[in-house]
Each structure stands twice: as structure tokens, then as C-alpha cells.
Design goal:
alpha+beta, N-terminal domain of TfIIb, Jelly Rolls, 19% helix
Length: 185
Amino acid sequence: MNNEHRENLVELAEYEGKCPICQGKLVIKDYKYTAPLVGDLLISVSKCENCGFKHTDVFLLSTNEPRKVVYRVEEPGDDRALLVKSSTCKIEVPELGVTIEPGIYSQGYITTVEGIILDVISITESLCSSGDAPLDKCNEVLDKLRKAHRNELPYTVILYDYLGVCDIINDKKKPVYEPLELNQE
């Protein structure tokens, strides 16, 4: 983070816990950060002094009820929308067969919709490079992902936001928000 944006970062708290890996001392720092277009965020950073384990999470400070955030990518530039994802958020892109499930060590982050697609392409390429991967299926999936990245294939990004702290932000196009029943999916 450059110095220009450090003035928007305020340390709120520092406390200790136990590392989930080695049970050593885990130092946790919480920060409030005011991000352009996004608003106020809580950034929580944890680091174990013993084994070096790190964990980061990001939440919007303005919370909502559990919700689905549905964002349609149809035109060039739609994929430049900011995506704020907490560690508990599930992401789906149904047209591309993509589901990103939160896990026990899942992290929160801020990226773009394009960043999610590029991550999925990278992971798929890595999985497909193993000798066991079915080449035809790999090529089919990668072709579809690359078409989506080149804006040749419209798709929908759905955030299952169980805590009401995630969002997709674009100053030209708004997502659709739907209530999320906690047993729904």
C-alpha cells in the first residue's frame, strides 16, 4: 500500500490468540481502511510468531442481512468491477461451471471480477498440466474460461454472502441483491 493511501488506514486493535497450526502465539491486528468506491472496510491480519502462519480477512463495515449478490458480465469493462469477498463467502459462476467454496483457512480479499476469472484460469491450467487430467475436457473448460475473459461469453458471478459483508462494486452497473436463506444454495 503506498503512502498516499496509508492515511486511510487506522489500526483499531491488536490482540493475541493461538495459532491453528502450531498452537504458538498468534498476533492479530484489526484495521479500518476507507477505500475509494468501496467505503469503510475492516481488515484483519493474523501472523504466528512461531511458524509464520498468516491469515487475512476483509469485511465491509456496513453490514447487511445474508444475501446473494448477483452480477452479470455482458460488456467489455463489466469485469473491472471490484469484488469484496470475506472468508465465509462462496462464489459461483454457473455458465462456466465454477464454484469457489470457503474452507477453514479461506481468506478474505479485494479483487476484480476479472481477477477471479484469471485465478480460475491459472488454477485450471495447473490442474490440467498433471498427467492424469483428461486433455479434451481441460481444453474445453479452458476455452470457455478464456472466451469469458475476452468478453466473448457473457456470465454471471454470484456471491453467497452469509454475513452480509461482501459486495461487487461498479460505478456504472449495479448487482442485484437477493435475500439468502441460510439453508439455501
